[in-house]
Amino acid sequence: MAEVIAVIALLFVLFVALGVFATVKVVGAAKRSADKHITQARRTVEDHTLKAKALGRPGPAGEVAQLRLTLRTSMRATQEALEALAVEDGSVKESLALFQRLSAHGHELDAELRRLESEPDRATLAARLPDLRERTERIAHSADSLRWAARDRARRFADDDLDSLSTQIDMEAGALRHWQTAESESSPTASSAPSARAASEPARAAEAPERPAPPPWPEAPATEPGTAPEQAWPDTPRTRQAEEPTRPAISPAAPRPTYPWQKKPRPESTT
C-alpha cells in the first residue's frame, strides 16, 4: 500500500513540474512576442516621426533627421536579410558577424544624431553636418554592400540549382520520349535505303553480262500452190490419234502353252 501511495505522489510531482515548465515556456514565448511587437511599434513610430521632422524642419535639424532615417533604414534592411539567409547558408554567418561590428558604429552614430536633433546652436550643427553626412554614407554603403552581396550569392545558388534541375528534367523528358529518339535514328537509314538501291542498280546493270538474243521462230517450209501448208511445230496428241488406224479395244487372249509335266486326264471307266 505504501508503495502505491509513493508512486502516485511521484506521478503527481512529475505532472506538476511538467505543468510549471510548460507555463514558463508559454509565458516566455508570449513575453518575447509582446516585446517584438512593442519594438516594431516603437520603430514604426520613430520612423514616422523622423519622416515628419525631415519634411517639417528646414535647415540643419531637418537634414539631421533625414540622415538618421537613412541610417536606420539601411541597417534594419541589412540585418533582416542577413539573418534570413544565415539560416540557409552557413557562410553568411561570417557576414553577419561583420555586420554586428558595423552595427556598433551605426548605433553610436544614431545616438549622436539623436542628441543633435535638439541642439539649439544651429551654427555648430551646420558645421558638423559634413562629417555626420560622410559617416552616415560610409556606414550605409557598407551595410548595403553586405546585403546585396548576400542576395547575389543566394540568387547565384538558386540559378545554379535551377540550371541543374532543368538539365535533369530535359534528360528525364528525353528518356520518357524514347520512341522519338528511335524514330529519328531510324529515319535517315530508311530514307537513304532507296537512294542506295537506286545508285546500285546502274552498277549491277553495268556489271551483268549481255544475254544472247532469242532464236527466231522457225519458218514454215515453202509449199507449192494448191497444196495445204504443213505445220512447222510438233504435232499434238489429238493429231497423232486421228492419223493412227483404229485398233481393237481388247486384244484376243493367246492360247495357253502346255508343259510336258502336266498329266492328261484319264477317261472314266465305263464298267
Automatic annotation (TrEMBL):
<protein>
    <recommendedName>
        <fullName>Secreted protein</fullName>
    </recommendedName>
</protein>
<feature type="compositionally biased region" description="Low complexity">
    <location>
        <begin position="182"/>
        <end position="206"/>
    </location>
</feature>
<feature type="region of interest" description="Disordered">
    <location>
        <begin position="178"/>
        <end position="271"/>
    </location>
</feature>
<feature type="compositionally biased region" description="Low complexity">
    <location>
        <begin position="220"/>
        <end position="230"/>
    </location>
</feature>
<feature type="compositionally biased region" description="Basic and acidic residues">
    <location>
        <begin position="237"/>
        <end position="246"/>
    </location>
</feature>
